[in-house]
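Recall that a protein's primary structure is simply its ordered list of amino acids. Everything else, from secondary elements to tertiary packing, is in principle encoded there. The following example makes that idea concrete.
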Amino acid sequence: MEKEILISAGLTVRESEAYLALLELQDASVAEISERTKENRTHVYDTLNSLITQGLVSYVIKNGKKYFRPSNPEKIIEILKEKENLVKEALPMLKELYKPKSKKPVIEIFEGKEGIKTVLQDILKENKEWLCLGSTGKSEELVPFFLSHFHKQRIKQKLPLKVIYNEDGFGRKRGEEVSKQKYSQIRYMQKTSPTTTYVYGEKTIIIHWEKDKLFAVMIQDKEIADSYRSYFNEIWKIAKK
């Protein structure tokens, strides 16, 4: 478990194993670390040098022999914060590079629950009116915990939502729940499609809500978004309250 956490924090497998060995041994020679990690000495030397460079390991010399010591594990938090600050400094340049280089629509596909979470996080980031057409009500089943926190943040941001739910059991149930939330307007219509369409800012999202093939297609294009927005507004006029 500890090794997996260190790897997630950015250490390599060998670095994680060597650091954990040192935490247990405290002062240790290369031979002792090699024996504990089952790595040959050459690899251990390279790994220790890398950890020293990162400030996670130091050494002392006793009787002409090197003994290595681990730094306080809190140093890992400091390293992560330093990396975060470096990324923040580079972010304006990275965003500039990320901008579309042409006027062609940018199309992305997001798969599974994590993909849907990414889409919902983007809605919060854009913080513009969110239109939802043909909602099935199944999102609550597929990402319940995340969706609860999502709507709390949406309300905190005063982000307005208009939803046209499918006129069926799922849609009615979810519509009644969402209608109690601030900044939400709900209407219903007969089911016309197995997909749900989101429109916000310059983005149009088409979501297929089947558990075994859950995915979303994001289209970033102002004209397409405006077209879907106009279509939504026309449907809204005739949808049931």
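The chain has two domains: 2-75, 105-238. Strands lie at 57-62, 65-70, 106-111, 130-135, 161-166, 184-189, 195-200, 203-210, 213-220.
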